[in-house]
Amino acid sequence: MSPLPPQVLSPLDGRYRSAVTELGEFLSEAGLNRARVQVEVEWLIYLTDHSMFGSSPLTDAQKASLRSLVTGFGQGEIDELAELEAVTRHDVKAVEYLVRRRLTSIGLDSIAELTHFACTSEDINNLSYALTVSDAVGTVWLPKLRAVVGALRVLAQEHRDAAMLSRTHGQPATPSTMGKELAVFVHRLTRIADQIEATEFLGKFSGATGTFAAHLVADPDADWPKISREFVESLGLDWNPLTTQIESHDWQAELYGRVSHANRVLHNLATDIWTYISLGYFRQIPQAGATGSSTMPHKINPIRFENAEANLELSSAVLDSLAATLVTSRLQRDLTDSSAQRNIGVGFGHSLLALDNIQRGLREIDLDRSALLADLDANWEILGEAIQTVIRAEVAAGRSQISDPYALLKDLTRGKRIGQAELAEFVETLDIGDASRQRLLALTPAGYIGLANELVDELG
Asked: What is the rounded CA–CA span in Å between residue 457 and residue 360?
């Protein structure tokens, strides 16, 4: 057997590439290197803007030329960095050499020694990861989550009055509406999305062990903490003043924990929708040309939600591992975070793929209200809760002498199917006031939904 040509190992870069390709703009190796170039360039501009170490402010044209190294970063730079790293065996050093080469090509050799000035690799790396993760979350992942939430919100409003049998512990229970049940997910996911949007993306810029030691030797009179803070904040990040060689990654642990939390709520949504489909509450809309089963032509399988489940589990496995690993670094530095952080895109990629499947899946289902009503009509015994509660109210008000309302209804309904006629006959014999009796006689399973319809308004 002849060997295959080189193949990608991850399905995110193969089968599912089209669904996650936007993340590659930021969370790929190339995206990280572009951010590294950005940090190096902006540090050069900061130093020269403040005329440090005999430098002079660059002209607007010179700044534009420098920044074009970032905006024009492409395949040529990717290939050149690969060649440089093959020699340096150090990814950040390769970026420094690339920037130095470009300084020469645009006539700025005079500031070459300010490239990577007083920086440890982690000064560049931590800011670059903060920039790329912030961009990936803000421009790709979070908008996708909010799009899914928006689709759920529309369905919640559309089905707010669609009475359905609830199932607590999988057993028939007090009815709700499909809209209210979907609104629960909208509320949960919106809250988590807001927390994620408020994430602090922290950065440090303080040297080899976070002490500004080399900086202070180079210029004892400069206010290096102030300079560090100004530079980090100029990149749109939040400054971390107290670190070792690395930024402590607590913000990453917090963020990945919240994204993993969102994943698990989405997983709950996917399994619930799957179950509603299996109960016949949702019909699946046939897609032209699609095959549900290789042998059973009638089938439409809920693959969107099953695919989402698997990818949400994979995403949380990666993100939970990152959150646990990244908060620990031996003494002032070890390298475990370097290898771990290269998988950030994997964690977000599986989550984004799941969101894409859920979004598509929600467009491929249609509520069967007749199935909901039929299920309700087959379970009149669920009104036992309503009846015993009314009896208790009547006893408390002195209008009934019934001694144990709960036991009375338990004997009548537990483990039994009771129809409308049997319940009506039972209610007629109850020792309760006539107003309460008439209210119970008028009650149906489909009408026993409390404030489910109105609760959807809590979404705002």
From this structure: 26
pLDDT tens column, 185-229 = 999 999 999 999 999 999 999 999 999 999 999 999 999 999 999
The answer as to whether 2 is a domain residue is no
Q: State residue 293's pLDDT score.
A: 55
Are the C-beta atoms of residues 285 and 366 closer than 8 Å to each other? Answer: yes
CB neighbours of residue 387 within 10 Å = 22
Which of 36, 51, 45, 43 is CA-nearest to residue 63? 45
Q: Which of 169, 339, 370, 403 is catalytic?
A: 169
How many residues does the structure list for the chain? 460
28 classed as catalytic: no
- Catalytically annotated residue among 51, 56, 105, 293: 293
Active site annotation includes 293: yes
pLDDT over 70 percentage in the chain: 97
| Cα 370 to Cα 232, 280, 385, 420, distances in angstroms | 59, 10, 24, 18
Q: Contacts for 100-109 with beta carbons within 8 Å, 24 or more apart?
A: 102/66, 102/69, 106/62, 106/65, 106/66, 108/58, 108/62, 108/65, 108/66
What mean pLDDT, rounded, does the chain reach?
Answer: 95
CATH number, residue 217: 1.20.200.10
pTM confidence score: 0.94
In whole angstroms, what is the distance from residue 57 CA to residue 51 CA?
Answer: 6
Quick one: 438 and 322 in the same domain?
Answer: no
